[in-house]
Design a protein that fits this description.
Low-confidence stretches: none
Helix content: 10-25%
Mean pLDDT: 94
CATH architecture of the largest domain: Roll
Number of helices: 4
Strand content: 35-45%
Number of domains: 2
Order of helices and strands: EEEEEHHEHEHEEEEEEE
Shape: globular
């Protein structure tokens, strides 16, 4: 499947600001399941120099600075991406026993440990133990956790904030895709399944008529490492595997590692943010 994506973020400041330093995680990845065929980053009110680098998890980051006073900042990323079907056999057994010792590897350690947005509390350990009692297959365990979140938690925009903790989401049984991803990460990690946060977009052929149009917002899901298979994407918000309708931007321990746009500035001006996303199918 081939898509165009336009992701715009605008900050309006109540007073001029300056010395603005920013990092953008807005360029789709290219890997065996996805090919980013075009990417352009537009920045206003000026056109600063943009420095491209790879972060610790090999995501593309675009860094830019605006030193002069300005009253707004608008960043627009335009991408063309082609995605491919996952042809691996995902029905094979994925034994828990094969996960032993992965926490000693630098490739998996970060995705098994507590992170700023994902606390591995006794409550999470208790819930995972109850959910997965008797299961010996990591793949089936992941599917069980995903189905549990989708069934028992309500998708409710505005019920949480960016800083909401996993414990708060678990208690109120409501949240959005970021919250459900963090909750699934916690339940998988306490079960010794390496799990990472994924930012990106989900394309829906038709709008369900609910409060949110999937093609006009960014999305979040997870990837779990399964023995005998590898990293596999799962979306607890929609209770499905992440397939060719999903466009990946970046991966990390949690949301804090892959914020679409993050930065600092000097000045007293308070910022009002507006985000616009348009995902369209091209083929």
């Amino acid at each position: 499947m081939k898509f165009s994506v336009q992701h715009s973020t605008r900050y309006d400041y109540s007073a001029p600001v300056w010395d603005s330093f920013n990092d953008a995680h807005l360029c789709p990845v290219s890997d065996e399941f996805q090919d980013c065929q075009g990417f352009a980053l537009e920045i206003e009110p000026t056109s600063p120099s943009i420095l491209r680098r790879l972060d610790f998890y090999t995501n593309q980051v675009h860094h830019f600075e605006l030193m002069d006073p300005h009253e707004f900042l608008e960043v627009t990323a335009n991408s063309v991406v082609e995605t491919f079907e996952d042809t691996r056999d995902l029905s094979v057994e994925s034994p828990f026993a094969a996960l032993k010792g992965l926490g000693q590897s630098e490739r998996y350690y970060d995705f098994l440990a507590t992170s700023p947005f994902v606390a591995l509390t006794p409550m999470m350990q208790h819930e995972a133990k109850e959910l997965l009692s008797g299961l010996g297959c990591a793949r089936k365990a992941v599917e069980t956790i995903m189905a549990f979140i989708h069934k028992d938690f309500e998708y409710a925009p505005g019920s949480t904030v960016v800083e909401s903790t996993v414990a708060e989401v678990f208690q109120q049984k409501r949240g959005v895709c970021q919250d459900f991803a963090h909750l699934m990460i916690a339940l998988c990690r306490v079960s010794e399944i390496p799990t990472r946060y994924v930012s990106g977009y989900f394309f829906s052929e038709r709008h369900s008529g609910g409060a949110v149009n999937d093609n006009s917002v960014s999305h979040a899901w997870v990837e779990c490492f399964l023995p005998q298979i590898g990293w596999v994407g799962y979306d607890p918000t929609h209770n499905r595997r992440a397939e060719s309708q999903y466009i990946k931007l970046a991966v990390g321990r949690d949301y804090g590692d892959v914020r679409p746009l993050a930065g600092t500035y000097r000045g007293e001006g308070a910022a009002e943010m507006k985000v616009s996303v348009v995902v369209e199918r091209l083929d």
